[in-house]
Design brief:
This protein is an alpha+beta fold. The chain folds into 3 domains: 2-434, 3-Layer(aba) Sandwich (Alkaline Phosphatase, subunit A), CATH 3.40.720.10; 452-526, 2-Layer Sandwich (Arylsulfatase, C-terminal domain), CATH 3.30.1120; 533-694, Sandwich (Jelly Rolls). The protein contains 14 helices and 33 strands. It has a 10-stranded mixed sheet, with helices on both faces. Strands 22-23-26-32-28-29 form a 6-stranded antiparallel sheet. A 5-stranded antiparallel sheet has the order 21-33-27-31-30. A hairpin with a 7-residue loop joins strand 30 and strand 31 (653-663).
Length: 696
């Protein structure tokens, strides 16, 4: 923690020394499903021949202006979790969602109402914030009566949406709910008859702030004609226009022109189906992609090229537009422009992923090592000269690092986690690396595939310097380290030689596994704050007769039971709401008085401690496939609990909710079976374990 704060302080000093310019503008352009081999900006690194390499001149231009990272990573190899990690500075597996992505036309908002995002942080220090593109971290609609909707079935999109990007720090929002070809029930592009279809007729379509602007009738039938028709082959130009709309309105507005701006631009391209626009601002896209040797390419590469055209349009506008805060200069000089991707290419090939193994959906490098190009001339991130050679940096960085990095650039203070403030728990300031320095001794980076395919036992991985250790699903779900693979990326970047059974590396494996458990259990920035841990675990393979804690609670009145952790002396009081007696089995603790002996409809658990603690995790277990509800830390905003299939075979449903925050002495952690908005079905679950760290 001390080292982190020192680095943050050093970064602030460096910023002051580099330039006295006002706070920089920030444009964060993120492609969807793009590997390092998908851009000619990395051709020398990936080794692709001119005959197969897509020519992306604008990405090359940005790289020459700034710096190109060769070891940049997403926190996950899937859409939703990466977006969560980027916006919150927190690993996505610390949220309620341990695998896969949000599906359906809605998806309960993944970001808690009281959790800061990059947008809320920047808006707090004077920025005007906007999002254009693919949201995909959850929306909540309304019913016809104006109340929150449970999902698509009871949604009325003629009503203003209940929860949107506007509730997470954005002033301007023109966006789609999720991937363009799957944003509604009729958009399943896995159906061959629907692949690359130019239009959807059902779904939320185009969203502007809280309004589904393409809605007709009850809001589920989309317009088929006019400006708001949801035509997939016009999304790229539409979002490019909206991005410039946000920027132009900002610099022209009397109330905004003296403020910095932040534009988050998560493009729909190049996620399948491949639906490139005919043109963007008159520049051809469909059929226009070319190899470096000049040969035409396919629709996928046209769709990647669409991002190149949109990026170039932004750079051109910044280069031509006077900076209202720096008379005589252009906006490009004091704007940090970043281009990256949300995960690796969905296509597993040496061309798309370069020299790396696998692709999207995998913990191997091809799933999460992505292009990352940044330029900010006034801030010392490159020289701004597109005629000079590109600068490369091999420092290890992650998208979760953007929160702390942008905070350092903007002069914002990171949340004080020890005081119970949420935010940027796993974020490291990498501004020195952006300025060309080698970043050393950074905390570990974690990755997970969010799919847990049976053929691939590695569900998570941790990177420490050159070493990468892979784990099964139990690390993220249950906090148990089961290493399965070890690679030395310096000698083996293709991850071909598994060293897990090499006798010379057994000590290293044990050391790295302990490191993984440490950071799995507590957030990166909290790892040194509260070293004393206490765990209350009701789970037992032997049933109610095993374990002191199980014996103490089994059939005890649920009005309240106090127990003491023998190692730390911490006292915990647990009480049930609307339950007769506690019940214990090998899955954990439940309540009597309902239909089954678990926490079910209308029931809740209340947890208190006699000291201030950081609640690391709460393990929730359900054997019947129903695990819903919400938790609430003190007066903090509730977050829905949804458990998912833990081992991909439907035998046990379980989940671990991590990093709930600081719980003050006497304050209540409430675990409820009924979702906080009261519109979904109640959950049925048992409490497996609670782990806390004791604050001094």
């Amino acid at each position: 923690m001390i080292r982190f704060l020192f680095c943050l302080f050093l970064g602030a000093l460096t910023l002051h020394a580099a330039d006295t310019a006002p706070k920089p503008n920030i444009i964060f352009f993120m492609a969807d499903d793009m590997g390092m081999g998908d851009t000619s900006a990395y051709q020398d690194f990936t080794g692709n021949a001119d005959a197969v390499q897509l020519h992306t001149p604008q990405m090359e231009r940005l790289a020459r202006m700034g710096v190109r990272f060769t070891d940049a990573h997403t926190p996950s190899s899937r859409c939703t979790p990466t977006r969560y990690g980027l916006l919150t500075g927190r690993y996505p597996w610390r949220s309620r969602m341990k695998w896969w992505v949000l599906f359906g036309a809605q998806g309960d908002p993944l970001i808690e109402a009281d959790r800061p995002t990059i947008a809320t942080m920047l808006r707090g220090v004077g920025y005007r914030t906007g999002i254009v593109g693919k949201w995909h971290v959850g929306l909540r609609y309304r019913q016809s009566n104006g109340k929150p909707a449970a999902g698509w079935a009871d949604a009325d999109l003629t009503q203003p949406l209940h929860t949107t990007p506007l509730d997470h720090g954005f002033d301007f929002a023109r966006y789609t709910s999720r991937s363009h070809g799957t944003s509604g029930p009729s958009g399943n592009h896995r159906n061959p008859a629907k692949r690359n279809r130019p239009m959807q007729t059902v779904g939320p379509g185009h969203l502007h702030g809280r309004i589904a602007i393409g809605a007709t009738k009850n809001g589920k039938q989309l317009m088929t004609e006019g400006d708001h028709a949801y035509i997939l082959t016009k999304l790229g130009s539409r979002h490019s226009d909206h991005a410039l709309e946000f920027l132009k309105t900002h610099v022209r507005g009397a109330a905004t022109r003296q403020r910095p701006f932040f534009l988050y631009y998560p493009a729909n391209s190049n996620h399948g189906p491949y639906t490139p626009d005919k043109a963007i601002d008159g520049q051809p896209v469909a059929g226009a992609a070319r190899t470096k040797a000049g040969a035409p390419m396919d629709a996928r590469h046209d769709y990647i090229y669409e991002n190149d055209v949109a990026l170039g349009r932004l750079i051109d506008w910044l280069a031509a537009t006077p900076d209202p805060r720096r008379p005589g200069k252009k906006l490009l000089g004091n704007t940090l422009v970043i281009f990256t991707s949300d995960n690796g290419a969905e296509k597993n090939s040496n061309i798309a992923t370069g020299p790396f193994r696998s692709n999207k959906g995998s913990c191997y490098e091809g799933g999460h090592r992505v292009p990352f190009i940044a330029a900010w001339p006034a801030g010392g991130v490159g020289d701004g000269d597109a005629t000079t050679p590109s600068q490369s940096n091999a420092s290890i960085i992650g998208l979760t690092d953007m929160f702390a990095t942008f905070a350092a650039m903007a002069g914002a203070t990171l949340p004080d986690l020890a005081k119970g403030e949420k935010g940027a728990e796993d974020s490291t300031n990498v501004l020195p690396a952006l300025r060309g320095k080698t970043l050393r001794n950074r905390p570990p980076l974690f990755f997970n595939d969010h799919k847990e395919a049976k053929a691939d036992p590695a569900a998570a991985a941790m990177r420490v310097e050159n070493w990468k250790l892979f784990f099964g699903a139990s690390l993220l779900r249950e906090g148990q380290a089961q290493p399965v693979e070890l690679f030395d990326l310096t000698k083996d970047p293709e991850e071909e030689r598994n060293l897990i059974r090499d006798p010379k590396h057994q000590h290293l494996v044990r050391k790295l596994a302990l490191t993984a458990l440490r950071y799995r259990r507590v957030a990166t920035r909290l790892a040194h704050v509260a070293p004393v841990r206490a765990t209350f675990d009701w789970r037992s393979e032997e049933g109610a007769e095993a374990g002191t804690l199980a014996k103490a609670f089994h059939l005890a009145p649920a009005r309240g039971k106090t127990v003491t952790d023998q190692d730390s002396g911490l006292r915990m009081t647990l009480a049930g709401e609307h339950g007769g007696k506690f019940s214990i089995n090998n899955r954990g603790l439940g309540l009597g008085g309902g239909q089954v002996l678990q926490v079910d409809d209308g029931q809740a658990l209340r947890v208190m401690f006699d000291r201030d603690v950081i609640v690391e995790s709460v393990a929730i277990v359900a054997s019947n496939g129903m695990c819903g509800g919400f938790y609430q830390v003190g007066k903090g905003a509730p977050l829905a609990i949804y458990c998912v299939d833990g081992d991909n075979d439907a035998k046990t449903q379980h989940g671990v909710i991590s990093d709930l925050g600081v719980l003050r002495k006497g304050e209540v952690l409430r675990l409820d079976s009924k979702p906080h908005l009261g519109v979904e079905a109640a959950g049925q679950w048992r409490l497996g374990a609670i782990t806390v760290r004791i604050l001094k």
